[in-house]
Fold each of these.
Amino acid sequence: MTLSTISVNDMHCGGCVSKIEKALAGRDGIRATFVNPARRLVLVEHADDTDPVSLLQIIEDAGFHPSLSRIDSGRRGGGTTERQRDLLKRLGIAGLAMMQVMMFAIAMYSGAFTGMDEAFERLLAYASLLFCIPVVGYSAMPFFRSAVASLRTMKSGAGLSMDVPIALAIAAAFTISLMHTLTGTGEVYYDSVVMFTFLLLTARFVDDRLKARFEDANGSLAALPEKALVVQEDGSARPVPLAAIPAGSRVWVEQGNQVPLDGTVSLGDAVLDESALTGESDWVRRHRGETVFAGTLNRGAGFQIETVAAVDDTRIAGIASLAARAQADKPAVARLADHIAARFVPAVLLLAAATWLCWQIVDPSQAFVAALTVLVVSCPCALSLATPAAITAAMTRLRQSGIVLTRSDALEGAAEVDAAIVDKTGTLTVHEPTLTGIRWLAQPQSGTAAGMNRTELAGLAAALERHANHPLARAFVQAYPDVDAGLVSDVETVPGAGVQGRYAEHVLRVGHAAFCGAEEDDARAVYLSVDGVPVARFAISDPVRPDAAEAVAGLKAAGLDITMVSGDAPERCRALAEELGIAWAARQAPETKLEVTRELQRRGRRVLVIGDGINDVPALAAADVSAAVLESSDLVKGNADVLLLSRRLGALADLVAVGRRARRIVRQNLFWALAYNLTAVPLAALGFMPPWVAALGMAGSSILVMTNASRLLAEAPRPAAGAAAAPAPALEAR
């Protein structure tokens, strides 16, 4: 299957979302459609042989103006800027006309009380008409085009967009005013027409700017340069479009520029700012042969890379694709809001007609104004944007902390978790064996070895381990980097046991306890023997991650009970758990990790599981929210709701804090949208609201929703308040 991303800049409301979804539903080759109105994106999962251009045609037939948009490029800004420029021109004309028409309207209203010559009143009406014509004919044209397209697609079962009642209100008010002007009888509503258009365009412009803010925040992750410097055979470099650069190309990265493609350093050293990709602010150094990723920023001298992937296969492209899919995916509350919004427009049209009929009976002079106000005041836009705007802002904020959600429901789940199960090895600890201590068992009693001090003996053990490929051998290499492997001779590796060699006339062995003649046995310890006598035990363990204590404290502050569930030995688990102040369970198989998760859920707990190994997959799959690092295997990532772009555990506290903050904002937005419509529409129908107030309310409601959601971008995530939970008792080790 292929995922195509389509930008639809003229998508405004829940009706637009419904139309696009219905237009694409059931088409051959289309598996799923995800629509994100907050970012004006449509993601279509379709068969590989489906031409993306045909998808554009389907959406265009539904009355929109779509364009293909590569989510990995992040370059939708041009279209957005052009749209804002066009809106600004239409807004400027509407604003100038509004100021003039309102001056005429004030004079006409004053004349109604103090008396005004009929000829002068008609002159003001014609002057108002003159200024109103460009507003209706130019400034309001996007509403008319969208409404006509929406009506044209009604027969296909697509819903009506919010532009239908908007266009109807503008057209009706202008037409009635024109008729009254030409006949010299009745009221004119030019002031309402220009003010309504101006306020609507203002709302659209502000709405666009807020959405552009989301795009700018996303751009730090997704934007890549248009071209890269490809090194030619003669050593010269020339700019080539990214899409034309295959894997295996040599690319030069200049100082201050972004790394354009994934690759390995082939010339020079790289000093990189990887914050856009991992959320970590510290610069890192990459040497020759090490991997660098597209989207990171070169803070040092220029260097050369050999690309390992085309632009569409880069790591950043995969992350952006996951994030876009999660943003477009709708949680249950958003689907309910869209369901209501899609039926809102027909209900408003019926209510406006009913209002007109009722007022014809009560007071015919108020019928048109009341019906017009009902059309103007209703706003399903706020309802349909309430959830996706908050989710988009929250996901953007999380990505700045190095977190990518693979499904939007995970954000709601993160707000509800109250227990966490954490793996030990590779999660709370650095998955890199480290020499942590030496216990001397005996001193050699004969020959040359008897005269060696402990430093020399440790160096000989390190020299032997330099000939081994076992992961534990790396601990000796790091602890004794200057030891020469040539100190020992006749080296022989014994598979599953250790390494044997000679120093002078003595036989040295490094490896398991039995191999070295030691009676004790510890799978994570390495022993040294000289001439068959065990002389030293080297303790090797994975060091605790530097931010583990801070991360645990953050999760506790958010009210989570934390349990470390590990397959490691009890003594190691106990020591780490006591250091961090958390509950623990040792020697847990994948099946028992799953059982621990389910037992917590049976007690009514909402469980967050964090792991990075295959043995964590069952628990990850069963968790309410699951998290894994991006470097995990595909099987692990496939069962994770949350991906950590780096191994910074503090991001987990950010996840919970932002999730809870987003939940509050979604509830605030939905409350406002529902309260506004349930209050304003009846007031308009009963005649208690003039059209200009209705226009102001409609414009302000959607702006308020977007502004409220954008607060998530401005505030640094912090753990939610809550009492720190006391650690649960240790589970029985098995």
Note: The radius of gyration is 34 Å.
Amino acid sequence: MSRISIIMAFVVVVYAASALGSPQQKDTNTTDGESLNTTPRNRSKINGTVTNKKRRREEQYLCRNGPSYGKCRASFIEWFYIGGRCTSYTGCVSGGFKDPDTCETVCVKSQKRTRRPRPRPKETTKTRRTAE
């Protein structure tokens, strides 16, 4: 066999394995009759809340920070929210959005949520003292 045939056979095997996926195993030794693959209702709510807070924090970080350049030989396009709009950067950048639509929806929503009204200036009342 030539090297090309061996490589092609390997690619076919890897593709077939990924297409089939791994079967999920169920554990029947649980005490309450549920599988270990299922989560209780209250646990999923707790994890969902933590996930939402973490995701919101990551979105705010992505919207506030610019591109982070690295060393590589590839060229990637990522979108960053800079100066009130989404801008594309090409190269070995990381920490941005994959498409402009996601950048716009996340960062515009984030900017609206984080803006706070400006405090009103304190009213100063000048009192004049009269000579007695």
Note: Residues 41-64 form the longest helix (24 residues).
Amino acid sequence: MHDHPHPLGHGDVGSVLTRREALGLFTTPFLLAFAGCEETTAGEDEPLSGSCVVRPELTEGPFYVDAELLRSDIREDRAGVPLALAFSVSRVAGSACELLPGAIVDVWHADASGAYSGVGSQSGTRFLRGSQQTGADGAARFTTIYPGWYAGRTPHIHFKVRSPAPSASAYEFTSQLFFDDALSREIYTSAAPYATRGVQDRSNASDGIYRRGGARMLLDVSETDGAYTAAFDIALLID
């Protein structure tokens, strides 16, 4: 059985917690996700760190497939703008953050046409899905493409961070990553094969899931010679 984050109100999303506040959220064991933390000597009523910010857990969505595909290159035959995506996973330990090796990071998203593998007419496929186990450096890296869009949603990537095997201390955190609207419009109007469909029909601000804390899940993307890279730091508070 996996433990999930305690429901947080909108006022908690993006807030910096003191250790007393963080521990006060516990009623049963659960998981809370923060931005990467810096070492500090903070007491109970001082912030854990200036960068320990709550990351909102967002819906898994209908397209998760427990495929157990341990691979870093998840593209298969899908065409699109290259995207290198790196996760750095830590856990809150006392008043600091320490790297979390051995965690499983799952990633899945739509192809350039807006289609997901593993469901519907694509039920026999597994493109743009994969898992990596974090190493001693807490890192999990994926080679993929910039995700396409589908009606009613802003462009996004799903991910899950979970314990490697069921146990009394099992944990699981699920959320979504988002992109700057201007970058998506640029790619969808100028790059093949996205340009045949044009721009997305939902901006971030008009996406119901993004409005539940997506600004804290916005990727900082850089570009070199037409290829994109993004890194995402996340720290888990595991009881």
Note: Helices lie at 19-24, 181-190.
Amino acid sequence: MTDKAAGGTGGEAAKAGAAKGAGGAKGPEELRRQIEQTRGELGDTVAELAGKTDVRGRAQARAADLKDKAGAMTVQLRSSAVQAGHVLQDRATRAGHVVQDRATHAGHAAQERATHAGHTVQDKATHAGHTVHDKATHAGHAVEHGLPRPVRTVVQTGLRHPRPVLIAGAVVGAAVAAEILRRRHSGHH
């Protein structure tokens, strides 16, 4: 092989070996050493040339590098996606808490309004009850004073002793009901 065909690197090693060889070997041992050195340099040159001509090997090495880079990018993207997921989850949690706080506040406000409205209705009902009671008492006094004295005495006795009046009322009610039932029954025959 010539220096031109060697492509530079191998040719330079051959030139260096030739220069050493030009000085000549000082004996058989020196010659053997130079031969071994030249063989080593030639082997390195052949390996380098073989590496340059191994397109498939270089393509596989490049593919392996790209695969490693793609794997690293995948890991990085997954990590970024997980981090983005955590960020979104935190934001959603905060938004949920804000909504929950607002709902709680609105619930309390509605409860306060309902309580106030209930108290207002209760106050009005109490006032109306007192008004009705006062009017009934006034009407009772007016009726009581308008009744003849013997009837008034019976009414006052009934108010003082309500149990006998209730029993008498129940007896009278039962008698009236019995009479109504008797008339209906005899009217059907």
Note: The two ends are 148 Å apart (CA to CA).
